[in-house]
Design a protein that fits this description.
This protein has 275 residues and is of the alpha/beta class. It contains 6 helices and 13 strands. Helix 1 links the parallel strand 1 and strand 2.
Length: 275
């Protein structure tokens, strides 16, 4: 039975190392009682060969239940693994459908399109995918690149139709809305005029179609608070309920704990900030 929910950012094939950190530094979270949400670029479905199998096997040995959001550096669950049966099944832990490989039952994938769940009593919306800013470099060097890395126009339209006017305690995405993009973290070697920002621009519109209170995303390789209720994750591991409660308290007028390592990056502005 899952009693604890942790959240972290991209692991890029080194999930076992992240779980080893949890085991050593956060021993109060027993594997059999703890689920870990990874906000994309997990790297389990990247190489499409035995390297992926090894990464899944090493991660599974720790005994934590994993819930993986698809990023841009990995294939969609229905495309992998070749020759195996992928199971779509209702998961009582998240009160929604997930995908998993029966050989690795502890590794679950949120659906490859926008989907709603209930986690720890909270209403949650998951939004997978992003654009790879190094796409052309990958293609030129024959590295892995996945044509279906972003949401399709149809998937975006379906999300708008299904979730407009909805209300969610938490949104989990890989990338973020355009207005929140951390330009200070952009790679200097990448010409931004070549980067497809269509998904971020869509998220900018989509976020105003429903009510949300806390939004967590990965992708940009930093741990910091971007603005009220919006947190970016990379290597940091936090208790999910602590993150949600932090912003519930803020909305109730309580002060934030400014000792948090990610707090110095938090932009308050003057008065209320438009999220």
């Amino acid at each position: 039975m899952i009693k604890n929910w942790l959240i972290t950012g991209d692991t890029h094939g080194k999930t076992a190392q992240r779980l080893a950190y949890i085991k050593e530094m956060m021993p109060e979270y027993k594997p059999e009682e703890t689920a870990v949400i990874i906000l994309g670029d997990v790297g389990f479905n990247y190489y499409k060969n035995k390297k992926d199998w090894k990464a899944k096997h090493q991660a599974s040995e720790f005994g934590y239940t994993l819930y993986c959001l698809r990023g841009n550096h990995e294939d969609r669950a229905y495309n992998i693994p070749v020759g195996k049966t992928i199971v779509y099944e209702y998961d009582k832990n998240v009160k929604g459908q997930v995908v998993y490989d029966p050989e690795f039952p502890l590794i679950n994938y949120f659906l490859d399109w926008v989907a709603a769940y209930e986690i720890a009593g909270k209403k949650v919306l998951t939004i997978p995918g992003a654009y790879s800013v190094d796409k052309w470099h990958r293609l030129q060097n024959d590295w892995m690149w996945f044509p279906e890395e972003q949401l399709t126009a149809e998937e975006m339209a379906d999300a708008e139709e299904e979730f407009k006017y909805g209300e969610f305690d938490l949104v989990l995405s890989h990338t973020c809305p355009y207005d929140w993009m951390p330009t200070d973290l952009f790679l200097n070697c990448v010409d931004q005029s070549t980067v497809d920002k269509s998904m971020e621009l869509w998220l900018n519109k989509f976020r105003h179609m429903f009510t949300w209170y806390t939004w967590c995303f990965g992708h940009y390789h930093a741990d910091r608070i971007e603005r009220p209720g919006v947190e970016m994750f990379y290597t940091e591991v936090e208790n999910l309920e602590t993150v949600i409660q932090r912003w519930d308290d803020y909305y109730d007028g309580k002060e934030l704990d400014w000792w948090l390592p990610k707090s110095p990056n938090y932009w308050m502005g003057e008065g209320k900030v438009d999220v």
